[in-house]
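Retro notes, structure queue

What went well: the backlog is down to a handful. What didn't: a couple of records were mislabeled last round, so from now on we paste the full input next to the output in the thread. Example, using GTPase Era from Thioalkalivibrio nitratireducens:
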Amino acid sequence: MTDRETNATRCGLVALVGRPNVGKTTLMNRMVGEKLAAITRKPHTTRHRILGIVTQGADQMVLMDTPGIDVEPRKRMNQLLTRTAVQALGEADVVCFIVEALRFDAGDEHVLRLLQASGRPALLVVNKVDRVADKSALLPFIDVRALEYDYLGVVPLSGRTGQNLQGLVDELRRHLPPGPFLYDPDQLSDRSERFRAEEMIREALLERLGQEVPYAVAVRVEGWEDRPGITHIDALILVERDSQKGIVIGKGGHMLKRVGQAAREQLEALLGRKIMLRLTVRVEAGWPQSERALRELGIDETR
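Corresponding output:
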């Protein structure tokens, strides 16, 4: 890229932050136009800082999807997830503080205080407006929230339906700093196909398991072989206890078969080729508290 072209472009890091389950990953996937990470209705589905890259014209937005910020994380894994999100907030050129329409609780208050302490330029993004039956209630809610920080602007939208998504993109483009692109314009993420496969498998698990297991589950791809017309993937599912292993496998292996089928269908759509997926379940007691296990799973990314 020439100096003239560099001066004509704008590029910046955009942190998507908020409490758990406000729709950060859904919003990033929608903005990028591809499913980069797992999304479910369960809090703390996001366990990594994931970059989604959106390039439009002379502007490039590097979106940092972050884990939900807990008020008082107790487990080691949740402490690391919160630390990852707070670090991203401090590194961003622009912060998108994402809240849910007509809801602002103690978790949102906590994130607001972190934002205020950081002093970073920020947009207030009011998500899930499609779920609001009485639209007249939105404006008073926004008026109150807008007074809490010196926001660059307020954008109501729906990450699920895409409503007013371009409004957010337009706002972000206006506030990007001048500079060269950080990534190739055709690149959509910093994450590999292997990582995205782990996310698709974990999503399939979370969607089918009850409340008793999801937070004790992790997925690691241990084998990947591309052959003509087909890719063979071997993935390990980690759980904490024998009882959880039984739930994940299910009677006669029925649950594991359902998970495998759902994940395989998503992977074939994502990768555009036939997938042979083999899942293995292993008990590793205390892995969410293990520094070694968390590093191996790529969950501790703040070092």
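Agreed that this is the format going forward. Reviewer comment attached to the example: The first strand starts at residue 10 and ends at 17.
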